[in-house]
Amino acid sequence: MRNLGFLIGSILIIYGSNAFETSDNLWENGEAVFHVGISGNSPSGGSWNDAFKRSMDAWSNGTAFQFVAIDDFVDPCIERGAGLFGDNITGVDFSPSVCGTEFGDSVLAVTLTAGTCKNLSCTNGFFISDADIVFNSLENWDIYSGPVINFVSDFERVALHELGHALGLSHSQAGSAIMQSLVSDANSLQADDINGANFIYGDGSETPVETSIATVYGINVVTLEPSSLSGPNDNVSFSGALSSSDAKLDGKFIDLYQYRFENDSIVNIQLSSAAMDPFLHFVRTSSAQDIIPAFTFNDDNSGPGNNASITESIPAGTYWVGVSSAQNGEQGIYDLTMTASSNGAPRLLDIIDSTHGPLVEINPNPVIDGALAQSDFVFQGKFLDLFQFKVNNTTTLRLDLSSNAFDTNLLLVDVLPDKALGNLFISNDDISDSNTNSRIEQSFPPGTYWIGVTSFSNSDTGDYSINISVVIP
Asked: Any transmembrane segments, and where (predicted)?
């Protein structure tokens, strides 16, 4: 049963958790040969052929799928039309129509895939044997990077999109993805695009599911799963891409990732890219998102070639891994691997005398796990733990105290340089009538603060967790 499967993929032009979608169609050997012989150059002088082959290389270098270019022209419309499913030779060209059928409104290009159905009823997709691409010659085209220019379509990013259809991807729901249905400022493969191709062709290197957290610096930080590393040996590996839609730091695009190391660890990070000169940041951040200078590391080319590498012994805490470039405006796909090893020993944090009776643990971390125990200081008949943190800039923080073992009571005071208590004293027993956990949300001016963890009832003991998050206005 040859060529019973047929699919059209297109991209529209509108200016203005994983979301990729697959079509159930794939190349059985994970490779497609394209005959590339588009005549002429763009208005800015770039070769259509070179731009198309760069888009092929982006998929080949960044994913488990491989495109192979042959430098000759094959008409993409051979044996295309009513009841026809192509000639099993993949071509690409400009045309005023889709092989005799009008382009839809605002459609820039169309990918025509066909192949052999996986079952008799053709309900499980097909093995692709032909994927011709036709670009709408009635549109205004050029080759450029950066933000979309109104009424001028960038050939290279549209080719990148159509090649995604050619390998078996449908439109993505991710707003930043190349495979979304509308043209955007993104002009390189994004994590969602890479995930989609690797999901189909299965190299096991899919970028982890991510969530995003706003920061006081105007740059969102992404948490990937697993985001908490507990040892004794942890390994993280993923691919990403710097693009024009990313935030900038000192004129360079940057992606930020957050990890929590539960134990003191030796961390090795390797950052590589064939598309740019990568630059690596690794910084410890406090509960108020202040950067801790003693644990701030940067590297440009300590790895092989121009690649970046950092190896450091670090205390337990929350850290940001930043991926950027050595030169302003560089974009492209990168690969990051991180290994963390620890002996599982308790984290080493300074303990000071409060001068008021209990000891105080100096703990800048956004997440603090502890336990009320009978050996703790007793305050008004209840066990009490104290933690100290600092705020460098006025910041609104939300402190959540939770426990499955007891009804929590959360205390907060400001502390003067001589350890005398200041004028601030806040306590919270229950978030609501039906929730026995505790929460304090407060604007904190620069200063030193103590968090007190205790219980509502006398003599309660058990595990608890404090989670401190920054509230962005």
From this structure: none
